Amino acid sequence: MSSTPIRHPGLNLGHAHAEAHEASESLVFGFWVFMMSDLIIFGLLFATYVTMLGGTAGGPGPGELFELKSAFIETSLLLVSSFTFGMASLALKYRTDRKVLVGWLVVTLLLGLAFLGHELYDFHKMFTEGGVPSRSGFLSAFFALVPLHGLHVTAASIWLIALLGQIAVHGLDTQTKTGLMRLAILWHFLDVVWIGIFSLVYLGGTA
Amino acid sequence: MSHRQLSDEEAREKAQELRSYCWGFGLAAVLTLIPFGLAAFTQIATATLYWVIGVCGVIQIVVHFRFFLHITLARNKREDLQLILFTVLILTIMVGGTLWILFNLYYRMMPSMIP
Amino acid sequence: MTHWADWMLGRLDWSALPFWDAIVDPTTKNIVNAIIASGAGAMVILGGLIVVGVLTWTRRWRWLWREWLTSPDHKKIGIMFIAIALVMLARAVIEAVFMRLQQAFGLDGGFLTADHFGQLFTTHGTIMVFFMAMPFLTGIINYVMPLQIGARDLSFPVMNSISLGLTAAGAAIVMVSLMLAPFSTGGWSGYPSFTESAANPGAGVDYWIWAVTLSTLSSTLTGINFAVTIYKQRAPGMSWLRLPLFTWTALCTSILMIFGMPPLTVATALLALDRYLDFHFFTADLGGNMMNYINLFWAFGHPEVYILILPAFGIFSEIFSTFSGKKLYGYGALVIATLAIAVLSFTVWLHHFFTMGQSAHINAIFGIATMLIGIPTGVKIYDWMLTMFRGRIRFSVPMIYAIGFIMLFVIGGLTGIILAVPSVDYQIHNSLFLVAHFHNMLIPGLLFGMLGGTNLWFSKAFGFRLEERWGRRAACCWIVGFMLAFFPLYALGVLGMPRRSVAFFEPAYLPWTVAAMVGAVIILVAMLCLLIQLWVSVRDRHANRVPGGDPWDGRSLEWSVSSPPPEYNFPVIPEVHSRDAYMRQKETGGGAHPRPDDYEDIEMPANSAMGPIFAITGFLLAFGLTWYQWWLVVAAGVAALIALIARGYVRDTTRLIPAAEVRRQHEAWLATLASLTPVTRADEQSAANRGLPASPIEGAVQ
Amino acid sequence: MFHPLFHLRTHSRYRHWSIGLLAIWLSGCSEHPISFLDPQGPIAAAQRHQLGVIIGLTSIVVLPVLILTPWLIVRYRYGSRSTYRPHWGFSKLADIVIWGIPCLVVVALAVVAWRGTLALDPYRPLSGSEDVKPLRVQVVGFDWKWLFIYPDQGIATVNELVVPVHRPLALKLTSASVMQGFFIPALGSQIDVMNRMVTQLHLEADNQGEFPGKNMQYNGKGFHHQHFVARVVDDSAFQNFVTRTRESGMTLGPRVFDRLMAQNTGRALVQSLEAPGADNATHEGDRRLRFGHLPANLFDDIVEHATPDWSSIKSGGTRNDASSSPEARP
């Protein structure tokens, strides 16, 4: 019900669309609420992970399985992708050339896929070293927490592809824009969760 | 939609927002490098290292919210901010409670689970 | 060929039939149980066939699809939620009667097998919480809340339809388990390691996991939908402190849904990982421990209790105020109390497992936190009493439920405080005392609220009032039946009888279990009365029509529109100037139904098949996962994903109702109104009540 | 030093005769004390006392509702001539009362709960008189029977807990199966038993007699059969029981242990062993077993999921603690 101008990144729906503004405000707020509900899930998985640290049952522990280098590479990929999504948001908001927008989005998508690829490679290496979830409670907790983040990144990537398709079909109409705005929130949010993962799981485990 | 000429005001705004993203990126990068660097290349005490990791992580989360997700103290962001703060409260209760309860249970019934 | 069948059917085989045990091992007990179980399954099949037959015979399939299943209208979705709730209520009450019968004959025997009894208490609990209480309150909030805040619909109508679909899929999974048995025997809380595959390898626990998961997803989405609607869709002038109390409780409930459901999602997901992918969260070996499940489950379970109870509190607030013909006492205090309960409910979950061995300090702190909730709850009770004080109390059906509630609920409060003291809880934990306590909270608290709310708002939804005499009989049977069924359980609890026992060996228990059985039968009679009430009401619908839309001299905005309301709710969005907005409109000069100057085109959401699609794919996904039919899992999952992506490409999502049409409908209703005779409250329960109250209220001081 | 538990005990007898009456009425047809309303030990007695205090305090808030609501609905029914003030919705005085009194009651309840919980913590050892050491018993919950190991006496029983009167009991408990709840209502608290975990419980009996014990946590189709008897006897009878069990009890070897681990009720277990050691003295005796020889550290091995050290049975390991046994008293 507020009449203050809406300042969500990327949203610039034009004057004649007061109702569209209102609708998208609900959409974005609703998405925030959803993210916060999701955050509780992550929080509880973090807590579970910490309580399972002692449950290695004689299997490999964090010190043997985690590598600082690959964690750093993954962190960098995700952080840069957050920044490039920010650039895409700017391009959307100030209606620069659509090619610029699509370009930034594609770069973001590639970074996200690179992250996923690297993470999968990491898991593969852990598997070959005996780090499988059925080995111990600790590994179960790890493979619930970190891959869930990866699953979110996968979902976000699929959504990004779908939105690129929407841009191609419908152009930059209200629905595409609000879609991009919500995806932006999801993307940045995943980076925030990753901060928790690299700090607690990787740095905490190898320190 | 084709390329469009921005008004002066819009151009200023855009430049400002671009700066904000860059600041955010820079800060986040530094806050990532500090703990990684300390963990990889130095031999400081583990307890200190945990503290550094924790503090850098928390600051970086705030940086992300401020510069990437645009959550500020501005009036039109109040609802989002309230929502986030309430979530933090609930998270604290649930996560803190879980850790408190479970480690107490371990201590009294299952000491082998305490790492 | 066999290989092909294995691939198709997974682990589903003949032994899933409910009468299989009787064929393999035809003892008397097995045959009796097979008859009961197959009878239940046959009832479901028969019910389904009748519905399909009637729809086909009356050629209503297209109508069903267009007007109901794909409708994004919050009113229709609300009604469908309540329909699910009532069907599931009937099943769960019958199960309860079987359990009470068993225990009445249960001194060293009885007629049910232990496994059958285990399934009964598990399905009873699961249904009552996830597929009766949740859909019921979701349905009522869905119907009433947008009308109360002056909105045209929820913020996300299609998501609302998806929520309905997911709940329906979960309910269907529980129903299918009657025909392709068994269901879990692990109780509604499903504690591992009993529910781990080592102890329980069958499909039962998996049925339970996926049914609950579907319900959880549905409730999370619903919570988001309600909260955003209340935040963003309020009519102009409807500030926070002008919200009707029911809407306040709806807001708090939806916040609890948003933040309370994730712990359950985590708990069941981790249990599923243990069962399906050999993880070790809650197993006894390899570093797992089941204590975290119990912790997570109750981190959900306690907010859940208040998800269930708060909307009922809201309904009772409306009922007490409306049927006392009086302003609600202590609005501010009630709002603060509601908010306090909502926040405190996140801080007490440990009181569900005081006996697990944690330190006395932790127990004491959580015990005291639990007692703190007693303060706002007590304040609410007294606020309602003060609302009746110096009122003019009319004993229509909703008020009978409300009075039954207030008297019985405080007894539940008393026993709740007893359970909250850890040192006493050591004596009554997991006993029938606990069972009696939570039924004491949920039957008078939740169910009476929902039934009272149904009696209150039924006329709004369908245009005619529910019949009073059978309604009163139903309410009285509920109250008496409840007391007789559950007060004995308190006695059994302090006598140390564990919950969930199929039989017992202590003769001292027998008189109490027999008394409880009689109570359960009276509750069954109450269910029959409800059915007769519905039947009689539909039969006499013309006599009980209330086209004026306001049969109870209501106070909030939902009474200001016709019964049933137009699909857009309000021809013109009302402007709100005070609390009890419609009452004020009636009392001040402007007239209850001012004629708007001009009308505008109204944009409403268009029908969408997303709800049914998610219902079907959700059901198939859960079914495939339960029986290891992986092809079905993949197919249903891919179909759901494609539907979701494709929905993003749809642009034709709204429908325009022209201003002329709105004008025509509204003018017609105004003309009807003009033809009605206003009635005083003395005639409220008579056929003269056409939904137009006489004003002013007679005999008022000040 | 002021002992809160003691404090709770002294008052219980006098103040809460009403609950005592209730107990007699409730359990009138019962042969043995089945409930804490008829307490047979200090813990149960203190719990009954607390129950009375809580009911009393809470009634301050609850009773007015039960009394005033009928009055309100009669006095202010539609058609009565009482005052009608439709716009009245707030009174400062009433608000102070309805917030204040529940708050005070909860403060009082909180004090009761805090002190009671700390005093009755199941982990808190009971200090009987100076010269009596607590009797140690290790309890293992199986599907669906209870095993009681007396480590200091070197004996074990199934579904029968024999203890001397007036001597504190120090129980350590675990489960060899899923979660269960160990409970002797007439003596005191229940506590959960869980696989790989050890919980503790301290009890004491004031009177001799047979008190039923049970499992409170559902664990499958034999759940309702998982009950046992706590037999409280005098010292000489206990000594007698120990001696007799040592001499004529069965050996808890691998075969018996496998049968224990299998899902069966006490009765089925006894039948499958055709047990010569089964005590047939009572009508329920066909569910009970006594063992005079068992492996050392059996309890710890069950907790650790290790194979019991069967060789220790013959090497006299059953009585590893006999020299330091408090059974030295005649």
From TrEMBL, chain A:
Gene3D superfamilies membership: Cytochrome c oxidase, subunit III, four-helix bundle (1.20.120.80)
Question: Is Transmembrane helix among this UniProt entry's keywords?
Answer: yes
Protein name per its UniProtKB record: Cytochrome c oxidase subunit 3
Concerning Pfam families, the annotation shows: COX3
Q: What top-level branch of life does the organism fall under?
A: Bacteria
Name all Heme-copper oxidase subunit III family profile domain ranges.
1-206
Q: How does it sit in the membrane?
A: Multi-pass membrane protein
Q: Which residues cross the membrane?
A: 27-51, 71-92, 99-118, 138-164, 185-205
